[in-house]
Design goal:
Blueprint (H helix, E strand, L loop, with lengths): L6 H12 L15 H13 L6 H11 L2 H8 L21 E2 L6 E2 L6 E6 H7 L14 E4 L9 E4 L16 E5 L2 E3 L11 E8 L3 H4 L6 E7 L7 E9 L3 E11 L4 E12 L4 E2 L4 E2 L3 E12 L5 E14 L5 E2 L6 E2 L6 E16 L4 E17 L9 E19 L7 E22 L15 E22 L4 E24 L2 E3 L5 E21 L2 E12 L2 E2 L10 E2 L2 E14 L4 E21 L4 E21 L5 E16 L20 E10 L4 E10 L2 E2 L7 E2 L2 E11 L3 E8 L7 E6 L5 E5 L4 E9 L1
Parallel strand pairs: 6-9, 13-18
Antiparallel strand pairs: 1-2, 3-8, 4-5, 6-7, 8-9, 10-11, 10-42, 11-12, 12-15, 13-14, 15-16, 16-19, 17-41, 19-20, 20-21, 21-22, 22-23, 23-24, 24-25, 24-26, 26-27, 27-30, 28-29, 30-31, 31-32, 32-33, 33-34, 34-35, 35-38, 36-37, 38-39, 39-42, 40-41
Length: about 750
Amino acid sequence: MRPYLLTIPAIALGFSLSAIALPSAQAQSPPKDLPNLKSQLEEAFQAGQVPSAAALDQANDRAQSPAEAQQESGEVSQSFNAEKTDNNRPTLRITVTGEKFEDDIQEVAGSVSVITAQEFKDSGIRSPQEISRLVPNFSTFANGPRANNPVFNIRGLANDLNIVGVGQSSVGIYIDDVPVDILASETALYDIERIEVLRGPQGTLYGRNSQGGVINIITTPPDDSTRFNGLVTLGTDDLREVQLSVSAPLTDNLFFSLGGSYFETGGFIRNTFLDEDAAARQDYGFRGQLRWLPSDEWDIRIGADYERFDDGSTFGALISDEPGEVEENFLGFNEVDRNAQFARVRYTGPDVVVTSISGRREWSQVNATDSDFSRFDASVGLAEVDIVQYSQELRIQSPKDNGRWRWLVGGFFEREESELEGGIEFGPAGAMPDFGIFPGSALANIGEFVDNTYAVFAQTSYDVTEQLTLTAGLRFEHRDFSMDRRSRFTLDGSSTAPVPDYSVEASESILLPKAAIEYRFHPNILAYGSISRGYKPGGFNIISDSPDAAEFDSETSLNYEVGIKTSWLDDRLTANLSVFKTDVSEYQIVGFDLPNQVTTVLNATDADIWGIELELRAKPTDRIDLIASFGYLNTEFQEFTDAITGENLAGNQLPSSPEYTYALAAQYRDPGGFFGRVELSGFGTYFFDQSNDAKQDPFVLINARIGYEFDDFALYAYANNLFDQDYFSSALNTGTGDFLGSPGDGRVIGVQFRASF
């Protein structure tokens, strides 16, 4: 590890420890000793003693704590347009619900980053793939078009198996408590209340597909106020975007919201052989929600949405060439349709809270790409995917104010039915008559999958003392999964089966425990430690012609983490530091069978990950906001022999895992209307595959935004990737010593008009 990378965490830790000496009268976290303080004052009065002015000020400060006020009201403070306390000072306190209870973010014993509604607007985020810009050790990588299997990587754990159409995710994505299949993760984001990123295994409360972490996207629920939001964006590369949403009451206790979005761009990739844009995009969608509050105890929400994506297909440019240009004889396309429905019913009683979340998601894709990535008519890759996902979760938990003990129990069921067809059609340059492959012939593998998951879980926390809290949780998860597989070779309208059809099925069960301890050295200082287990399911690979070789094993991890969370200067500054170590067993990796030109799934025996994360937020004045984050990541295969090549890869780094990430954001908002923001995101070296034969060198992206805000309207000019930094997001080994990569987004300059009233 480079010595200079330790300086930022070391400095922050020094500040954090020095904060212990801050006067207790400035404590801003929920004061657990408030009842004792009140009783001491009452005893003083009864004894005929007059409390000192300092004691009265201390009691008043604690009673008016902004964190306590938030817990009572259930409101969420905005970090970039900070709420103010009764003392009229800005605060960075934010309420989160990632662990199923409303908590101050500084009181959660774990690594959590939050993008609030105001910060979401100010930063210009529009899709889940852009959430990582301000979160340490979180990176996203596109595989061609935006809607085509993005890779989400948190702490070295990624979901890159989806490039072969099989496997599960290492990062869970939830929209309003409903799980989203990683394939369907691309969606337009608007009407956002907040976005929470929980780093590290979240298996106890979220189960499978969350060992890297969880992204919780919470939309703004309709209520008794009438709101309208509109956004129009024009930019370079023919970028056009429109978003509209409205929310209003229908009756005293029935409310609705309705919104829609449209986006198009010519993209950043030019097919110089066909003289056309290779990465043009067009997508649109609609979203609606009804909310019914029949009484103070009941909150019922139902919603639905639909989205359509028409993107350019997967494309590849030699990583040694100009990233913005490709030479392919086939333009390709990627068409995606997705729709979703959900129902959320919540009962809040004096002694118990019951929550039911029902969801259904359907996702379909048709994709065609130039699979030889050249100007020669050799082959076209074809893929068609259809997925239907049903989920049901039921939680019963203690109310928010339950004294020293709070608890939660629940059950979860999910069924996923999917059909995947992947194949290749041969052109004149790819024909091999000696092997019966002629121009126009095609080979396809078809798999029909059924996946059922059942789980029960529980978690409890107990305040042993006013300073010490213990947490324990356990989840039992069982999974049944199967695949019906067939292969077809087509020529001149006739179809044959090159290998026999087969069916396979399997099941697996796992326990996912968690234990945590937290200690409050001071109301502004929380230290914690935790141990948790993560789980990424195994599955079947339709590439395999043999049922005996089709299954790959599940991946598990054990995570150890210690951290410290601090807040000082009347909540104008927060600094959080964490150190973690993750031991991974049976790490799932994509293998490329060069002789047969197919991808498959391999299990690396052991991998080791450790890292450091630092987050700083400051609001020195009402007008200025500052954010800084830094993440260092050390990843290594401890034991891994590639089953295809026979190469020993022990000691190599895990793919798609930047050595470090950092972010800096500075923002100024004047009461007179002026707004300015600059944002910097840096990435260390990362490798494209497990062989570590090709890599992306460190790079920095800079975004800037300037504008003027009126009462109900705002006008901005912005630039993303201001200096047009070239980089590759992913790359594939061609077997000839070259790597074909998917270039990252280039520079976009545009103007944006926003209306909110």
